[in-house]
Design brief:
single chain; 337 residues; alpha+beta; five-stranded mixed β-sheet; 22% helix; globular
Length: 337
């Protein structure tokens, strides 16, 4: 196997963008997904020429959980008529040509009056392939907290909240995000092992929405760790196009069937290891790299299609096994039903 594949794996584990044409190779396009459905007598629900376009075909949301030294969370009081007076995290729609980090900084500044530096991604939430929310955390580096006298269309005010029961929330969907941020902060304070390294979304433009897989398995004969590689055009990690009207879990399931057949053995998504996105060139696609682990040994997992198992070096094996075994070693992917 070419060394470049392990180099690419090291990059995504560090949150670095992949370079070259191999990064956008797709093994299961929307057109091929439609063909697979039609072969089963099912009418496809998406145009195979679908293109992600902000405010038209995709909706990207950013949200930020900022905690201070007293473990209070930065919250804003909504100004929108539909939820005026209620409280929520600073959050909002990404705008044209924005990346995830700049959108997050802008929303926090507009809604709270504070300038922040983003330090890491915490959670990615999806309802369908065309709706995603990226949740980050960071630190305050300037500005002043918005007061009621500074109310505008973005928010009525902002404040630090210790107990969420003190305020009326716009929605309860942010509670688990705040809990996650507090767990992360405490783990950092006590230097708890098993957590992901601080990592922000990587800047790399994509024309499509892609789901890249790092599929981990052990060989029963020697207990060595392998990952699945695709041979299509050039060696690369298996990648498919995210179906815009179905959940990420549905996209993953169909892709695994494409790789391993209808009787694909039990496997589980462990979480995200990287997110790549950059809309500065007017491309609203992205790439999510998902870690997937098989429970069955390599000898019991069939492969159909142009794929091979690649045995990893000991160092990389240890890194991946640590991420597979610890529920906090990857970024949480919350698939909303």
């Amino acid at each position: 196997m070419p060394d470049t594949v392990e180099e690419d794996l090291c990059k995504v584990l560090k949150g670095l963008p992949l370079e070259g044409e191999e990064a956008e190779l797709c093994d299961f396009t929307l057109e091929e997904q439609n063909e697979a459905l039609e072969s089963q007598g099912i009418q496809p629900s998406v145009d195979p020429k679908y293109k992600p376009v902000i405010f038209e075909t995709v909706m990207y949301i950013v949200a930020c959980v900022i905690l201070n030294e007293y473990n209070e969370v930065l919250m804003i009081q909504e100004a929108k008529k539909s939820c005026a007076g209620k409280w929520y995290l600073p959050a909002g729609h990404m705008e044209k040509s924005e990346n995830i980090i700049t959108a997050c900084k802008r929303e926090v500044l507009e809604e709270t009056g504070l300038e922040i530096e983003c330090t890491t991604l915490l959670v990615v939430e999806t309802a369908r392939g065309n709706w995603m929310r990226f949740v980050l955390t960071g630190n305050v580096i300037g500005g002043s907290l918005k007061t009621p006298s500074e109310a505008d269309k973005e928010s009525l005010q902002a404040k630090w909240v210790k107990n969420l029961e003190e305020v009326e929330l716009r929605a309860n969907d942010i509670i688990h995000l705040i809990d996650r941020a507090r767990m992360y902060k405490e783990a950092r304070r006590v230097n708890e092992s098993g957590w992901f390294i601080d990592q922000l979304p990587a800047l790399r433009p994509y024309s499509k929405q892609l789901l890249r897989l790092v599929i981990v398995i052990k060989k029963k004969a020697n207990n060595n760790v392998h990952i699945l590689l695709s041979e299509k055009t050039a060696w690369h990690l298996p990648t498919c196009e995210i179906h815009p009207t179905r959940s990420i879990h549905s996209t993953l399931r169909r892709f695994m069937i494409e790789l391993c057949g209808a009787e694909v053995p039990a496997h589980r998504p462990c979480g995200l290891v990287s997110v790549e996105h950059d809309a500065s060139t007017n491309q609203d696609g992205l790439c999510l790299t998902l870690l997937v682990a098989f429970r069955a040994p390599l000898e019991e997992v069939p492969i159909i299609g142009k794929c091979v198992w690649h045995e990893l070096s000991k160092k990389l094996s240890e890194k991946l096994l640590q991420k597979v075994s610890s529920r906090n070693a990857t970024f949480f992917l919350n698939v909303i039903k």
